[in-house]
Amino acid sequence: MIQRQLKFRHLIGKITRRSIFSDTGVLLLPSNTILTLENINQLLIHGVNIIEIELATTNEEKKVRLSVHDTAIDNTVTELREIFEEVKEVNKVPLADLRKNVIPIIQQIVDETNLNGLLLTMQTKDDYTYRHNIAVSAISGLIGRWMGLNQKELSQLTTAAVLHDVGKLFVPGEILNKPGKLTDDEFEQIKKHTIYGYETIKNTVGLNHRQALVALQHHERLDGSGYPFGVTKDKIDLFSRIVAVADVFHAMTSNRVYRNASPFYEVLSLLNRESFESFDPLITRVFSENIMNSLIGHSVKLVSGQKGKIIYIPKNNPLYPIVQVDNKFIDLSKHTDLKIKKVIQ
After folding, report:
1. For the chain, how many helices (H) and strands (E)?
2. Is residue 273 part of a domain?
3. Which of 118-132, 150-164, 228-242, 268-282 has the lowest mean pLDDT?
4. Which of 51-55, 93-97, 143-147, 223-227 has the lowest mean pLDDT?
5. How far apart are CA 127 and CA 244, in angstroms?
6. Which of 39-48, 114-123, 219-228, 324-333 comes out lowest in average pLDDT?
7. Which of 6, 68, 79, 344 has the CB geometry, 3.0–4.6 Å to 299, for a possible disulfide?
8. What CATH number did the domain enclosing 20 receive?
9. Nearest 5 degrees, angle CA 171-CA 166-CA 279?
């Protein structure tokens, strides 16, 4: 049996185009199933001729994976909306529901590390509030993993990150979604969401003080220019500093009611430019290097309108990769007028 399994190991990760039934009509695998070694073993036990199974082509496989990914996130958005509605009523987080229906999907996203696909999914629907929380949680989890946090820390971080903006539930919606410039009084009300979130998490049995600090501190900055208290440097918890970077990155790369998404290069440049002042330089460096390395092979659109493919990321200057445009290779570090405007999915 082991030798037979090894014979078909190359099929692991492929996707079934049709449902597979046993000779007696029992459903063994539904269509769009991503094959695992266990699936293959099951089919062999039931005598299925694996060679005759219809599998998706490469392009079809990508489409199915994206469809499955989108559906999972759509369902998670629905779950998170219901959880937040309960929070607004009782000022506590239904932690059991969050851990059962939301956190596992976010952890799955982190395991897949398909950051570009995640960002695309997070930007294609209208319910920005919930998708933003999910995206910030997933990005924070990725940063935490890249920084070598252990599994317990990663679990606490992703949970805290998905709740970082929970305090906005207690801020009037007309202020949160105002398309124009906020008045000073309105901005003061916005800033209070950090305190509301801190209190809500502190009221929830099973969540700890460090996770509550993320809600309180994710708008604090190293130089003291943030809010609500203007604390500085080491007084800002590591989790809060990670979520701050994830929060700004996703917010700036997303379309909002009051502004369009900023160009990709502008967001990364801002994070790196404000290292040491606003953001933790270690976190921004780890994030920038890893996000750029994950884009090798991806198509991009330059500010000139040209389309190309990232083929190399220099370690000492990751924001300026080498891009292939048609038959030419362009080193963006030597052509500073050509920057990446958008990553094409």
Report:
1. 15, 7
2. no
3. 118-132
4. 51-55
5. 21
6. 114-123
7. 344
8. 3.90.105
9. 100
Instruction: List b or e across 112-150, with b for residues whose CB sees 16 or more CB atoms inside 10 angstroms.
Output: ebbbebbbbbbbeeeebbbbbbbbbbbbbbbbbbebebe
H-type helices in 91-150, by residue range? 95-101, 103-112, 115-123, 128-146
Q: What is the pLDDT of residues 207-233, one digit of tens each?
A: 999 999 999 999 999 999 999 999 999
List the strands of the sheet with 307-312, edge to edge: 328-331, 322-325, 307-312, 299-302, 340-344
Active site residues: 168
The tally of domains found in the chain comes to 3
Nearest to 280 by CA among 147, 89, 97: 147
| pLDDT at residue 2 tops 50 | no
- Contact between 88 and 203 (Cβ < 8 Å): no
Domain housing 39: 2-56
Q: Are residues 70 and 41 in the same domain?
A: no
User: How does pLDDT run across 242-280, given as a tens digit for each residue?
Assistant: 999 999 999 998 877 677 888 888 899 999 999 989 999
Residues 85 and 174 in one domain: yes
Q: How many CB atoms are located within 10 Å of the residue 81 CB?
A: 12
Give the dihedral sign, CA 120/165/291/71: negative
Residues 158, 146 share a domain: yes
C-alpha span between 105 and 36 (Å, rounded): 19
Q: In terms of Cα–Cα distance, which of 316, 114, 303, 314 is closest to 325?
A: 303
Is residue 281 assigned to a domain? no
